[in-house]
Each structure stands twice: as C-alpha cells, then as structure tokens.
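S1.2 Input.
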Amino acid sequence: QVQLVESGGGLVQPGGSLRLSCAASGSIFSIIVVGWYRQAPGKERELVATITPGGMTNYADSVKGRFTISRDNAKNTVYLQMSSLQPDDTAVYYCNARSPINNVWGQGTQVTVSS
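S1.3 Output.
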C-alpha cells in the first residue's frame, strides 16, 4: 500500500508562486503514475499534471507554462511548482498515485490566490 501526504498550500497573492509537495511512503515501487489534481468549490475535480517513474510529464492546458511537476526519487517526493498564480487557481490540491491495484489519494492541501 501507498500513503501520500501533501504539504505547501497556503494563501498567496495573484502573480505569486507556491510549491506543493507530495511525500509517498509504503509500496512506492508499484506506482505507475503520480498526478496532481485540484477541485474548486462547485466544480469537478480536474487533472493538473502527471509524472511517470520514467519522468514523462503532461499538463492541463490551463497551467501550461506556469506549473511544473517534478520528482526527487531520493526523497520519495513529487513536487508541483506553481508560478504566476491566478484567482482561478484557488482550489484544494490533491496528490494521486496509481498502481496496478490501488488508486491512492492524499488528504489535500488548500491553495488560495487572493489579494
């Protein structure tokens, strides 16, 4: 089994930056892909970015050029570097890890972009 813990959320002004972390523990070698999702009030949860163990990444069109997903294998951690943040980026951000058996979610971390 895999456990995920997100951190790094908070309040930031428009145009600011924030880095989210997703620390994984457990059976991490079984992970196929790690993704960041977000859910704003009244909206469906949406995919933000993904990264595979081989380092392949993809991004939602709404965050391309502003967000970067990366990994640090030594720390068993995936990051989401967010720049040029906008009010529409306000949401609860969730880390997700998919394995052949499990689909695991972290507890979520709140990101609020407001002046």
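S1.4 Remarks. The radius of gyration is 13 Å.
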